[in-house]
Amino acid sequence: MHTEDNCIFCKIVKGEIPSHKVYEDESVVAFLDISQVTNGHTLVIPKHHARNIYELPEAVASDVFKTVPRIANAIQRETGAIGMNILSNAEEIAGQTVYHFHIHLIPRFGHDDGFGAKWETHADDYSQDALKTLAANISTHV
């Protein structure tokens, strides 16, 4: 079970585990990912423990997301990255391994930089009517 008590990111927030911080304010911490998928790979996390996007309060999300452009631009200026992947995984099926909401900022330097994010598209599998119905159904839950 993943709880705040055994969460590695909560321990980083509390200073119990060292990290290489690039940014910190009253509600957000950003630090270099230990894996460094590419040079400058950074995680942006709320200090508030939330398992993932599904549990993230809107006010906390606002604090996190408003810092992302500032940190992304700082990474780009320092590393000279020509692009950046910005992603967050929710639950094991999506690749989440640390159950504290976090955003990966992965600088990109070329097609051979060690990271790829390519997926298949299925546009031909959905009619315009099916998309219209799906959008309407999703909107009822917002």
UniProtKB/TrEMBL annotation:
<dbReference type="InterPro" id="IPR039384">
    <property type="entry name" value="HINT"/>
</dbReference>
<feature type="domain" description="HIT">
    <location>
        <begin position="8"/>
        <end position="115"/>
    </location>
</feature>
<feature type="short sequence motif" description="Histidine triad motif">
    <location>
        <begin position="100"/>
        <end position="104"/>
    </location>
</feature>
<dbReference type="InterPro" id="IPR036265">
    <property type="entry name" value="HIT-like_sf"/>
</dbReference>
<dbReference type="InterPro" id="IPR019808">
    <property type="entry name" value="Histidine_triad_CS"/>
</dbReference>
<dbReference type="Pfam" id="PF01230">
    <property type="entry name" value="HIT"/>
</dbReference>
<dbReference type="InterPro" id="IPR011146">
    <property type="entry name" value="HIT-like"/>
</dbReference>
<dbReference type="InterPro" id="IPR001310">
    <property type="entry name" value="Histidine_triad_HIT"/>
</dbReference>
<protein>
    <submittedName>
        <fullName>HIT family protein</fullName>
    </submittedName>
</protein>
